[in-house]
Design a protein that fits this description.
mainly alpha, rod-shaped
Length: about 100
């Protein structure tokens, strides 16, 4: 009976060792991926913040350089829609409401 137990233990120990090593490797890989993802997320957030600042600066320059004829066109066509600059036109309308108020 002990002989059977000993012969079964050797392959069982070998399989356990392989599974344990693979589990440790996978866990390490997952942790590394999580760290890289967190760093990438932080970098992306910083880049997005910078991009927003640049776009707001460009928009502020546009508002300052808004000529009377552009204002007149927007007042003449209040339902003007743009497929490319939807948010810009909405912000421009709000800005013009603030000027006219």
């Amino acid at each position: 009976m002990y002989a059977i137990r000993d012969t079964m233990r050797k392959p069982s120990d070998a399989i356990s060792t392989v599974i344990g090593k693979e589990t440790i490797r996978v866990t390490s890989s997952v942790e590394t991926a999580r760290v890289k993802a967190a760093l990438g997320k932080a970098e992306l957030k910083d880049n997005l913040t910078e991009y927003r600042k640049e776009q707001y600066k460009k928009y502020a320059e546009l508002k300052v350089s808004l000529k009377w004829n552009k204002k007149r066109l927007l007042e003449a066509f209040p339902k003007l829609q743009s497929t490319k600059y939807i948010q810009g036109i909405q912000e421009l309308r709000q800005y013009l409401k603030g000027i006219n108020s």
